[in-house]
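wait is this the right file?? whatever heres the structure
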């Protein structure tokens, strides 16, 4: 049968096109199952974003060996619950604000307590109820350093806020360094490789200001001094801003809410191993999957997944997962995590411990400390329940309050007797709460294998609720784009300028 050359070209083109479509469909089939290991704020927000990106048909399992919420947790004392882990959220934390709104939760504002900073001998700074007096004290002791710090942090926050626009337009990053560079350029990367002390001295802050004001902020937020990296130090200073808030009922409600909204299945168990497996399909193709081994109360289990998101620290003291048979081997040992002990005491504080002679009017409700060998605590503050209840007049008059103490070690009975005139209830929570920072930082990779992603890589830049949420959305976008070959949405340069021109 005669076929014209033009018709042959058209048929050949159609055949080639159909073959390309078939190849694309074979290689870019929708994943069936995704595993998320860890149900803290990182893992639950990852499940939430994965559902948004991959659609309603994907099956998502979330593994958690302890309680949903992870390092967002409350502690019960005498019928009330108090934040024992991550406790406050910055007003510019847009993911957390969106979660609270979308989940129908409510925000609460922590009480405005008067602050003092104690160096082991005296208070180097003590707030007054009068704003003007505080301004005079700041200028008298530290010149314009407070104002300069506010402007310094605001400049960093302005750059930080770029990540929300990038993620709104579905851009993702394959390394934590590339994510930080897209936000703040060389400035953010350089801050990873110097201490906050060096960063602030370079910016002209006085040593006295750093010792008296910056050190206490680092100690209360990260249990470390000014030898931590400059980026996490800036995040810590942002936590001294006004307008901080928390979730009514406890910040952990965000995690349980996200888990429910993601329609993921919670598997209460410990993940022990991850191994790559190959399965043959009916047309004779080979599919690559990951087999997760885990243990629950009912015994051991094995399940297969297309994509694995690790949302728990790869640290032997926090989560000892064995990666079996990978070449090259997957590195599973990140650096050490910093121990912080949170002790809750219902009692009457001993003001004389802080140099206040009896009889003593002690108006302070939060005391931070400088780096002094005399001190066995990092901070002590009066705390309110996560579901606020009015403080009774009797309680106010007696001075009985619930206090939260951060210390490097569990407090002894003798130390408690030094801190309190009297007390009748004590609860202790021991955390490996955040990395032990030591610049220059070695940031773990985000992508550990073909479709295994490590969300907690971002903690080694800075550990915070919003950092985990940002990492979760980045991993959801990255896994989606890499699965479907959308390279134009990964590690793109000059995004700030490009999005300005597009808008």
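ok assuming it is, sequence goes like this
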């Amino acid at each position: 049968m005669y076929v014209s050359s033009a018709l042959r070209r058209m048929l050949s083109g159609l055949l080639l096109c159909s073959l390309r479509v078939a190849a694309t469909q074979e290689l870019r089939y929708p994943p069936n199952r995704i595993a998320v290991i860890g149900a803290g704020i990182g893992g639950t927000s990852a499940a939430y974003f994965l559902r948004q990106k991959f659609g309603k048909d994907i099956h998502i399992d979330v593994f958690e060996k302890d309680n949903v919420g992870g390092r967002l947790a409350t502690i019960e004392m005498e019928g009330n619950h108090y934040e024992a882990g991550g406790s406050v959220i910055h007003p510019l934390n847009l993911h957390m604000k969106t979660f609270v709104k979308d989940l129908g939760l409510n925000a609460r504002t922590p009480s405005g307590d008067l602050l003092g900073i104690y160096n082991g001998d005296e208070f180097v700074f003590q707030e007054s109820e009068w704003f003007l007096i505080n301004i005079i004290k700041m200028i008298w002791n530290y010149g314009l350093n407070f104002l300069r710090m506010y402007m310094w942090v605001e400049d960093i926050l302005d750059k930080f806020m770029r990540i929300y626009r990038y993620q709104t337009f579905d851009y993702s990053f394959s390394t934590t360094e590339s994510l930080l560079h897209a936000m703040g350029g060389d400035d953010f990367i350089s801050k990873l490789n110097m201490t906050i002390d060096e960063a602030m001295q370079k910016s002209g802050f006085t040593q006295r200001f750093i010792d008296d004001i910056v050190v206490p902020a680092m100690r209360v937020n990260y249990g470390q001094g000014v030898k931590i990296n400059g980026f996490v130090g800036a995040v810590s200073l942002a936590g001294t801003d006004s307008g901080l808030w928390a979730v009514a009922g406890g910040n952990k409600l965000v995690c349980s809410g996200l888990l429910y909204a993601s329609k993921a299945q919670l598997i209460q168990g410990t993940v022990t191993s991850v191994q790559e497996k190959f399965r043959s399909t009916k047309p004779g193709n080979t599919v690559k999957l990951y087999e997760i081994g885990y243990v629950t109360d009912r015994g051991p289990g094995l399940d297969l997944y297309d994509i694995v998101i690790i949302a728990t620290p790869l640290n032997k003291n926090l989560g000892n997962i064995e990666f079996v048979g990978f070449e090259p081997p997957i590195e599973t040992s990140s650096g050490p995590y910093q121990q912080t002990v949170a002790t809750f005491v219902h009692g009457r504080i001993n003001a004389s411990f802080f140099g206040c002679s009896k009889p003593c009017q002690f108006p302070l409700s939060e005391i931070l400390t400088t780096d002094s060998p005399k001190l066995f605590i990092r901070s002590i503050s009066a705390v309110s329940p996560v579901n606020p209840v009015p403080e009774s007049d009797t309680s106010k008059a007696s001075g009985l309050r619930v206090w939260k103490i951060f210390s490097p070690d569990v407090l002894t009975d003798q130390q408690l007797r030094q801190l309190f005139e009297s007390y009748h209830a004590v609860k202790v929570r021991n955390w490996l709460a955040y990395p032990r920072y030591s610049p220059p930082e070695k940031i773990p990779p985000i992508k550990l294998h073909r479709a295994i992603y490590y969300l907690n890589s971002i903690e080694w830049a800075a550990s915070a609720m919003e950092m985990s949420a940002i990492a979760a959305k980045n991993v959801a976008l990255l896994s989606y784009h890499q699965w479907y070959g959308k390279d134009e949405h990964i590690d793109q340069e000059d995004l700030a300028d490009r999005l300005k021109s597009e808008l």
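Residues 145 and 204 are 9 Å apart (CA to CA). so i think its the right one actually
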